[in-house]
């Protein structure tokens, strides 16, 4: 298969982790005879520094033309700490989501057996957890009208949803649940918010088309608690933009590190794949950031184009790296490996998983992986 991929590495650790994802994609291309062509452009803080615009026209253009976008991270504290700054890196990502109409953000949450004992949560709570968050990505409070009064003492952010916006992601979430364990949980705040009541109405209506799927509802405050108390109850969670943002960070604790969580943002014409962690500026350039979320985002990209076997190969390699403790410091405090060695290991495993000889002694020393 031939795929044109726009690569937006962005800020902070984005370039380092995306470099590993590209290594792994290239290994897949080589092994399975695919052609992946990349076009790289700037986005976020680095695009502001270079062009004064977090999403330059050139960047948007290559994304619109590409089959898919591979995205790193954006954000920089130098903008966060200045509430008066009019241009912010995040605007680049938000505009890109809107322009490409990436309305469904899919965030899978799974556990890895070797990491279970390292979690802050009890093994009996998290063992076997496997659910997906369907987060609406182009509506709600993120994109509603914003105002700031002239005296600067009053501000508003408006939350708006239309039935059409709710329906399209709801269909996707029901279709996913139908192929999984057949349970959909709508997370909202219908006891308070009018938009949430519209979500409930539309979701109940659409449910009629998916009779095999069980539907239940949770208020977002209760959902935040249930995610930690009993995450096994979830199969597919459907929710609006901001609730999905918050709950997915919370859910990352179940997997063991936010550095493990990949995501796909899907629209009718475009698709973007990105790790859910941010730019983690403190780690920039140190070769310590976990590349697995970026690598797994590349696997989601392949899944999206029906390259299921190739995606599985990447997931197996990631699992192997975790099993052998070939991990960055967030997962392996003592004998940790660098971002690029984790990437190298996964690339080599993809290329030659049967014949690769692992030097266990060196792995334990945190040195090299393969002799
Ligand atoms: C995410 C991020 C973004 C969001 C930021 C960077 C705008 O936190 O993708 O979860 O809030 O959607
Ligand atoms: Mn977020």
Describe this structure in words.
The protein has 371 residues and is of the alpha/beta class. The chain folds into 2 domains: 1-103 and 267-371, Isopropylmalate Dehydrogenase, CATH 3.40.718; 111-257, Isopropylmalate Dehydrogenase, CATH 3.40.718. Helix content is 43%, strand content 18%. The chain has a 10-stranded mixed β-sheet, sandwiched between helices. A two-stranded antiparallel ribbon has the order 6-7. A hairpin with a 6-residue loop joins β6 and β7 (155-157). α13 crosses α14. The longest helix has 19 residues, at 14-32. The mean pLDDT is 94. Bound molecules: 3-isopropylmalic acid (IPM) and manganese (II) ion (MN). Manganese (II) ion (MN) binds at residues 245, 249.
Which whole number gives the mean pLDDT?
94
**In percent, how helical is the residue content?**
40-55%
State the end-to-end CA separation: 33 Å
Query: Tally the helices: what do you get?
Result: 15
Question: In CATH, what is the class of the largest domain?
Answer: Alpha Beta
Number of strands: 12
Reading side by side through the largest sheet, how are the strands ordered?
Answer: 2-1-3-12-11-4-5-10-8-9
Which structural category do the helix and sheet elements fall into? alpha/beta
């Amino acid at each position: 298969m031939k795929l044109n991929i726009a690569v937006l590495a962005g800020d902070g650790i984005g370039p380092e982790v995306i470099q590993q994802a590209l290594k792994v994609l290239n290994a897949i291309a080589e092994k399975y005879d695919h052609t992946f062509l990349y076009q790289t452009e700037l986005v976020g803080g680095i695009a502001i520094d270079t062009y004064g615009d977090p999403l330059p026209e050139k960047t948007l253009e290559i994304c619109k033309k590409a089959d898919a976008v591979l995205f790193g991270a954006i954000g920089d504290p130098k903008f966060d700490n200045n509430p008066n700054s009019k241009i912010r890196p995040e605007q680049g990502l938000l505009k890109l989501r809107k322009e490409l109409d990436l309305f469904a953000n899919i965030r899978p949450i799974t556990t890895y057996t070797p990491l279970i004992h390292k979690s802050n949560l009890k093994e009996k709570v998290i063992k076997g957890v496997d659910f997906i968050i369907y987060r609406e990505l182009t509506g709600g409070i993120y994109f509603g009208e914003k105002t700031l009064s002239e005296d600067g003492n009053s501000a508003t952010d408006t939350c708006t949803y239309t039935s059409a916006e709710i329906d399209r992601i709801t269909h996707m979430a029901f279709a996913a649940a139908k192929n999984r364990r057949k349970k959909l949980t709508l997370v909202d705040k219908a006891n308070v918010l009018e938009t949430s009541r519209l979500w409930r109405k539309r979701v109940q209506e659409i449910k009629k088309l998916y009779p095999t799927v069980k539907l239940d509802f949770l208020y977002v405050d209760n959902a935040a608690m249930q995610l930690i108390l009993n995450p096994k109850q979830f199969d597919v969670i459907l929710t609006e933009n901001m609730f999905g943002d918050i709950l997915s960070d919370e859910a990352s604790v179940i997997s063991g590190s936010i550095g493990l969580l990949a995501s796909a943002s899907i629209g009718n014409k475009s698709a973007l794949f990105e790790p859910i962690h941010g730019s983690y500026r403190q780690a920039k350039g140190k070769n310590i950031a976990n590349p697995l979320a970026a690598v797994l985002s590349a696997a989601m990209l392949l899944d999206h184009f029906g390259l299921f076997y190739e995606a599985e190969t990447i997931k197996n390699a990631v699992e192997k790296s975790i099993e052998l403790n070939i991990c960055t410091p967030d997962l392996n405090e003592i004998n940790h490996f660098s971002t690029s060695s984790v990437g190298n290991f996964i690339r080599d495993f993809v290329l030659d998983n049967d014949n690769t000889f692992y030097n266990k002694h060196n792995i334990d020393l945190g040195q090299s992986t393969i002799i």
